[in-house]
């Protein structure tokens, strides 16, 4: 298999050596190489360098010609002179990776494709990446996004170009790749990709001083000429009507994304912008876009309608509004753009943007309260105005998805009180809503009185438009062994949070006894102090109480303080004052007990597998033995 590498050269004296060396040193070997350099009337030393290399390497051919003003004619000369099985178009200021042709040869052997695209690497510039991300290693052109890489720096089967007389236009200098690529793609049997190796290095030599045609100011006529030529090339394709329409559709998709972006964002004169807009309007009518109109996305439909029926200002207004959060409105359950003409067009054709709107959210804090779980987080809509949004937390039982309960989530500015980290890219692009919600423990028990896993969703309602998502969280945000004493429960409820393998937040609810460890009582004067460890997180307040009882009538409710907290245990201290009379009575008591209560209801406390009552009794005996009260 022979590879022809075609290199049009114009004033590339500072880069052509690196370019040629990258081809000469290809790992496929010199016996598989043919290099054809076409010197397009260079005024620097490029021609001399080419002749030097030709004298050194037998597989290098050099053609000198007068300047044509564009790469099209030099490339066509190379096609005519080529004898290789495949031809690669390489620019004189770019270069190849050492194994580029070898990697491409592997794809040819594997797929027998007419076109092979090697991964691009940018030097001081961006490169196409979408074609590598959204396609398999080998694919057919129809239905793909191949038109989002329209440059000629690819490997082509020479027979494909000869058979269908595919050549570069020579009568214009900007965008001559597009008509060529449309024909090559359309007639190709398949396209193969080298994804795992940088084959082609695209450079942007800002300090070299090379005269690049692409650096010339771009006029509206030059800009539109390549589009008109490409549309005309599609019209001339020798293909069935349906296939031709599909190619028209794909090319208009590209225009809606790439060319319109250039029209709106580039520094064209206003006269040029109006010329481009009006010419696009004529092209829509000429090429009967309504024949394939229904295939377009909602966004592209509105863009096409704005070109057809509106003015340049209407197009620009929608273009920028559609890319900003909050610039779409909800009506009758559908999502429409805010700009007036775009809104009316979308409304009349029932073109809804609900699929464009992405709803995302995350929990940034989860905290145990006395009888509830507090959730704090943020969410955002990528497009919809969410100022009238209502939020809910929906809790569902993992094993019975139809069993759900919802809690209102309240909008707030928590970031002022409790700052937390949010991806800066989100802040730049999205209008974030901060929220908090209380998950009632008693309500959870109404949902499910047994042990189980609860999944959390965030529901957003804007009028009659609803979006929902599984709430995500980071590993640093968790609830560990949060213990609750609920009405009617003989055992405490312990809740732990965990993240699924997709990063979704869920709660595990279990009923289990309270187990104390390292229970200690000491007496100092009139103050009795205590300490205990527990695997669960206990909260005490108005409804949940901690009591130390000596018989029925000596009842103490000490203050309990959390002294230390880890994922494995919680350490608590407590103390209470007693009078001399109470100390005398305590000394006479045979035992005492610790009671954890909820609204006058107590639950058992276990220490080393037994009731804690025995533990307290054993501690009290030596504590007061022999003391003079």
UniProtKB/TrEMBL annotation:
Residue ranges annotated for the Glycosyltransferase 2-like domain, each copy included: 4-136
Domain of life: Bacteria
SUPFAM superfamilies xref list: Nucleotide-diphospho-sugar transferases (SSF53448)
Enzyme class: transferase
Pfam assignment, any one: Glycos_transf_2
GO molecular function, one term: hexosyltransferase activity
InterPro entries: Glyco_trans_2-like, Nucleotide-diphossugar_trans
Keywords of the record: Glycosyltransferase, Transferase
Protein EC: 2.4.-.-
Family: Belongs to the glycosyltransferase 2 family.
PANTHER family named among the record's database cross-references: GLYCOSYLTRANSFERASE, UDP-GLCNAC:BETAGAL BETA-1,3-N-ACETYLGLUCOSAMINYLTRANSFERASE-LIKE PROTEIN 1
Entry protein name: Glycosyltransferase EpsH
Gene: epsH_1
